[in-house]
Design brief:
Structural class: alpha+beta
Order of helices and strands: EHEEEHE
Strand order of the largest sheet: 4-3-2-1-5
Helix content: 10-25%
Strand content: 35-45%
Largest sheet: 5 strands, antiparallel
Distance between the termini: 7 Å
CATH architecture: Roll
CATH class: Mainly Beta
Number of helices: 2
């Protein structure tokens, strides 16, 4: 399952990334394999989404969230 498919309040564990270039940026922001991630809020039009990862809230575009594969 991709992070972009997760619903508000649900949690997942980051497994891997589908885009190498994007994965470097996401890992610098704390989205590391093995970290628990959850959806906190979704903008009215569905983009961006607010996620909780590594103890802080991060805003991601759906395109970015779709590169994160969950366990």
């Amino acid at each position: 399952m991709k992070l972009s498919q997760l619903t508000i309040g649900k949690k997942g564990i980051i497994k891997e990334f589908t885009d190498l270039e994007m994965s470097v940026k996401l890992m610098e922001m704390g989205c590391l394999p093995g970290e628990e991630i959850s959806i906190q809020r979704v903008a009215p039009l569905g983009d961006p989404i607010a996620v909780n990862v590594s103890g802080y809230q991060l805003s991601l575009r759906k395109r970015e969230a779709s590169t994160i594969i969950l366990q």
